[in-house]
């Protein structure tokens, strides 16, 4: 369907813009239903263009008047914008348009959220504000005047004149329209300051509603740390006099890197110990860093077109991952990132929505802000760094910034910087950007007379539109251990570029135990015959923290697969090895909590599907619960000792060491509640002075069918805090027994606080429903129907969030005939709905193809 859709845009069709913009002046006269936007745009013919067709994007705009060089003109309004006969020379275009922010429920363009005005322009939202060449390769300095009685009026760049009812802003750095932002509201600031490496003073402000002023301190510190880090690690300095962040309650995504005026979903910036969990604090620190880092990777150097999205997103995610590693723990962060990649990106890569990190076509670009573009995009940057080394990476980045500052560039430009800086040929490596799918790497070993040989074979299964795959360049980090546990060959990176390749290690006195894909050195699936004894050995002895963890994960997965497919029980050997790992006081508590995390139900479903069987979500859930019981039974003493000895006595701090101890004690609590009842969790709930411990205790209770009183108390305590209430909504669905999940979600949609037009609240309930795998796939099909009903209700108002949430159905082809029939019926019901958004219809079309 996508292939033939007339609205499909293709990378190969790129042509340069006919006109460039030298300067933009915008005046906003804000009014809820009738905001006037006056624009004055200086155009100049693009010497590199092939034609002179003048076209400006525009959507949902009421054109009041238009002028060229001061003379009134009547543009021709066509689908998606306007056109007119433009001079073949520089000229000024002026327009006045009217828009209706109050009725903008799509949260794209200029809209209202709780009485404030705000914008979201990436990717193609600026065309909902005024007529403009809304494409990232048109960059210009912007001057903005805002007229409104609201007390705080913000836009990009540095502040200019202001007074009663108006404020002016100037952004000297040429930027594409997607980085434009405007905010107006009754806001207060948590302020700070930063002195850059060259001595420039920057005023920092985090703008929030009065009631949230107590949730800003952490975000401000995270911003300062990010600014310091980017100077120290990448040599990148901030370039304006002010940096503003605004928290907005209604937002489709996490946050947006608008130049000098980042706009954040309030859930991605507001935090206090009482209202936010350790995971929230870590996520906020990472998102603040991410958006700040975009100032160089995205803003100063931007994308030529939206097919190049990974150019800024993959690189910026990689940078925020490095930052979190530096602030906290590299080992723990790497494991978290690998878990996310496997749970979400491998899932995408193995289903109907698989696409290359640089897609070749799209109908709606908003549908391509995916884990593949972001997280696999970041993995590619990580592989590049491993292949060229830290020094080569540093040189390549310096060259990239120096060469392309102020430009809109492509993946080819990015790779050329690496080639020119390091002399390495990256033509084969470039396949990572164009080829979809997760490579499988098969391992064979040979040992004879002191020579150990590893033979690696790669193979990538077909993905939609790409039946045949080429070998990619896979950096495989390998170390070898002696049977006594000593490391005989420290980590080295093997480069697998061919379909099959052998690597020999000589001079060994005994057959070694290999530790392969250390640090998760490439986003691939390793296929390796390994005995449980070898895994337990690696769990005990591997010097690489990732593979140490991986060995435990492999043991857990093997045990779970046997329980599901052969009906066996929990494996004492695995549980004892796990017990030794979690009791090892030389290991970081956060790492030990990760050892206790079993593979998720969806990941197991995919693994079963790959053995050629339809997964049964109920059986998977039951097996996983049985293993949790088995662990709690056999390791009860260790777990309760860990629970007691890792309690924190002092005041709450979100820093990594304390957070790690809480994640270990909460993992122990959750297991112990299964076998010992709810007393410990109730006590923790009562004593908790922070959200991390409060919500973990509540979750532990709900999961054993208790906690009704606490659930009510929680609601009473937090009914005025919408971010906390999102947790209250989500947790009930997440903790529901499979057969109750749909009913729980449905009952919550009738709750007076279920504000379904707020994306955070909608996602709290329905994200949790699709995340409860056994509940979502309950045999009745009730969850499928409920979700489809609500997606159809949301689609006319907010296509972007609707389209994103259709992904709950993306794995449908894995399941048995009954489930497939039920899901297909819902997908077809959605597809055949009159007036379905382009966003949602593209997603459903791809899933049904
Ligand atoms: N650039 C933003 C970020 O990752 C995300 C913007 C998403 N916008 C969208 N329309 N999907 O930092
Ligand atoms: Zn980003």
TrEMBL record:
InterPro entries in the cross-refs: Aminopeptidase_N-like_N (IPR045357), Aminopeptidase_N-like_N_sf (IPR042097), PepN_Ig-like_sf (IPR038438), Peptidase_M1 (IPR001930), Peptidase_M1_dom (IPR014782), Peptidase_M1_pepN (IPR012779), Peptidase_M1_pepN_C (IPR024601), Peptidase_M1_pepN_C_sf (IPR037144)
Swiss-Prot/TrEMBL keywords: Aminopeptidase, Hydrolase, Metal-binding, Metalloprotease, Protease, Zinc
Residues annotated as domain Peptidase M1 membrane alanine aminopeptidase: 218-431
GO annotation terms (biological process): proteolysis
Coiled coil: none
Single Gene Ontology MF annotation: alanyl aminopeptidase activity
Enzyme class: hydrolase
Domain Peptidase M1 alanyl aminopeptidase C-terminal stretches: 532-849
PANTHER family on file: PUROMYCIN-SENSITIVE AMINOPEPTIDASE
Listed name of the protein: Aminopeptidase N
Classification lineage: Bacteria, Pseudomonadati, Pseudomonadota, Alphaproteobacteria, Rhodobacterales
